[in-house]
């Protein structure tokens, strides 16, 4: 087999492995932070229903376990957690019996009184991103100060901050503070460009034309 043909086959194999049998982990409500006692539902949105996806996690005090092993309950292809606890903080992902895994999501559960609601999945360059600093008590939309990488970036009267047309420079660790209530945990916001498989598709088309 000549080098060009080998390159084409390798590229095709890479393209197929990166664009098939993939699942995307989604979180509802869409947030990376939660109060103790909140209800959370996690779903593996799959391209191939035959892949047999399982939701797994690595929490603070546990080794890798799957939904139903002492936490969560399966219902209609979702893992529902009716009373989330700080011990449920950790990394969650979908895993197939065939090997591939989905994106990973880091969830933080606090026993405190303030959380920062921010995108749980990577955001695309050019999109607008809204951050919401809220308390567990009513009213929840109080004036809040926002910080990125420990540096103050602004104060909003209703606890909402919108970052317009995000770029890679907006990627970082965010938190917020509500006077008299406290500070939220920190959450990382990832900013990404085109999806990975789009790059492989372009390259695949290029070498075959």
From TrEMBL:
One GO molecular-function entry: transmembrane signaling receptor activity
Domain of life of the organism encoding this protein: Eukaryota
Protein name: Ig-like domain-containing protein
GO biological process, one term: cell surface receptor signaling pathway
Pfam families listed in its UniProt record: Ig_2
Annotated InterPro entries: Ig-like_dom, Ig-like_dom_sf, Ig-like_fold, Ig_Fc_receptor, Ig_sub
PROSITE patterns in alphabetical order: IG_LIKE
Keywords tagged on the record: Disulfide bond, Signal
Domain named Ig-like: residues: 100-192
Region forming the signal peptide: 1-23
UniProt KW Oxidoreductase keyword: no
Gene Ontology annotations for the cellular component aspect, listed alphabetically: external side of plasma membrane
């Amino acid at each position: 087999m000549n080098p060009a043909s080998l390159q084409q086959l390798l590229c095709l194999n890479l393209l197929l492995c990166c664009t098939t049998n993939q699942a995307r982990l989604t979180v509802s409500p869409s947030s990376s932070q939660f109060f103790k006692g909140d209800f959370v539902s996690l779903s593996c949105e799959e391209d191939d229903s035959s892949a047999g996806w399982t939701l797994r996690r690595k929490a603070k005090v546990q080794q890798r376990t799957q939904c139903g092993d002492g936490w969560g309950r399966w219902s209609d292809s979702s893992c529902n957690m009716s009373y989330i606890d700080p011990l449920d903080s950790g990394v969650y992902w979908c895993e197939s019996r065939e090997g591939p895994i989905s994106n990973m999501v880091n969830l933080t559960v606090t026993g405190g009184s303030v959380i920062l609601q921010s995108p749980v999945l990577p955001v695309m360059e050019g999109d607008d991103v809204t951050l919401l600093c809220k308390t567990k008590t009513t009213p929840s939309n109080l004036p809040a100060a926002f910080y990125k990488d420990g540096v103050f970036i602004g104060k909003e009267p209703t606890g909402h901050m919108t970052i317009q047309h995000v770029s890679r420079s907006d990627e970082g660790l965010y938190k917020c503070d509500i006077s008299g209530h406290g500070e939220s945990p920190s959450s990382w916001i990832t900013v990404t460009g085109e999806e990975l498989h789009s790059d492989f598709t372009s390259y695949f088309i290029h070498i075959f034309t």
